[in-house]
Design goal:
By secondary structure, the protein is an alpha/beta fold. The chain has one domain: TIM Barrel, CATH 3.20.20. It is built from 12 helices and 13 strands. Strands 3-4-7-8-9-10-12-13 form an 8-stranded parallel barrel, surrounded by 4 helices. It has a 3-stranded antiparallel beta sheet with strand order 5-6-11, with no helix packed on it. The protein has a two-stranded antiparallel ribbon with strand order 1-2. Strand 8, helix 7 and strand 9 form a beta-alpha-beta unit. Helix 6 packs parallel to helix 7 and helix 10 packs across helix 12. The relative contact order is 0.15.
């Protein structure tokens, strides 16, 4: 109710300014013990995925808290897990502003942020200061000026840095806002990258006595053959989960609306069916060998249920939070708990 009153004011602000302002407000509310009152208590509907015990299957997608500065505040909104990043080896400013655009008529967002972040060292420092002890995913990527043929070195560097702090590591090879990044989804480059990362992850596990699952985040703009080839690669290299999907370069469902022609990735309600179709095809190709985290257009219990029915084990949301408010994660988790036999 409060968010419905506040949203018109927030939507008058520049989207990036509103984003930072809302997070600062949430931090203050958390500091005074009010965040739970805003969103409600966490719902327990446990799922075991990737060898981890999730208190409920509703997570926060990467991108909202790129530097891990608001982990405790976001966790207070009832999420079963939090994913921060995407983080790169070196700090980078991202693309020039404006770079974030709302399409309210379609409950959609276009972003071309470009992995703006303070670098992996800063993120690890922020995570160390946080008192959150739930499941934390850390999304890693490459710097914009690292040539694609040397991308693996950036991912390895980040993996080494975040290994001790992460519950799982998400490998982002699917953002449309870093030039050529999606080339890493091609079968030959994907095999090389996954071979390098899984081997390094095994070395880190042996060194530290702690196994950290690896998840790979893929694009929605893939055909059936590409999904099948990627699924085979994931199984061959023993990836622990697949996150499906990132934002889309398609503009289906927003044609002719203000901001629809802005460059960048489209998220929100128009992505729902496309992302669910990828989850379904991926589940068919993987045949239960690797769990899937379903992302894209989750605004309701029904949307989340659709992803789970398509083959996902967990779901994540981001744009739904912007349009529906801070109580969304708890409402969806409660609805899924009520539906579960």
């Amino acid at each position: 109710m409060l968010y419905r009153l506040a949203r018109p004011f927030l939507f008058q602000l520049d989207p990036e300014r509103a984003h930072h302002g809302a997070l600062r407000f949430l931090d203050v509310a958390c500091r005074f013990g009010l965040a739970g009152a805003i969103a409600g208590a966490i719902v327990h509907c446990p799922r075991r995925v990737m060898g981890l015990e999730f208190p409920n299957p509703v997570g926060l997608a990467a991108g909202l808290d790129k530097n891990g500065e608001h982990i405790e505040s976001l966790a207070a909104l009832g999420f079963g897990f939090i994913e921060v990043g995407t983080v790169t080896p070196r700090p980078q400013p991202g693309n020039p502003a404006p770079r974030l655009f709302r399409i309210p008529e379609a409950r959609a967002i276009v972003n071309r942020m470009g992995f703006n972040n303070d670098g992996v060292e800063r993120l690890v420092e922020n995570v160390a200061r946080a008192r959150y002890r739930g499941i934390l995913g850390i999304s890693i990527g490459k710097n914009f000026d690292t040539p694609i043929e040397r991308a693996a070195a950036d991912y390895v560097y980040c993996l080494r840095k975040v290994h001790a702090a992460a519950s799982y590591v998400a490998v982002n090879i699917s953002s449309p806002n870093t030039a050529n990044l999606r080339q890493l989804q091609r079968s030959d480059q994907l095999d090389r990258l996954l071979g390098t990362l899984t081997e390094e992850n095994r070395r880190l596990a042996a060194r530290h006595g702690r196994t950290v699952p690896l998840a790979v985040k893929i694009a929605p703009d893939l055909n059936t053959e590409e999904i099948g080839q990627m699924a085979a690669s994931f199984a061959r290299h023993g990836v622990d989960a697949v996150i499906a999907t990132n934002t889309t370069i398609s503009r289906d469902g927003v044609e002719g609306l203000a901001n629809s022609e802005q460059a960048g990735g489209l998220s929100g309600a128009p992505l729902k069916d496309r992302a669910t179709a990828v989850v379904r095809e991926l589940a068919r190709s993987l045949a239960g060998r690797i769990p899937i985290i379903g992302v894209g257009g989750v605004f309701s219990v029904a949307d989340a249920r659709e992803k789970l029915d398509a083959g996902a084990s967990l779901v994540q949301l981001y744009s739904g939070l912007i349009y529906q408010g801070p109580g969304l994660a708890r409402r969806i988790a409660a609805g899924l708990a009520a539906l579960r036999p």
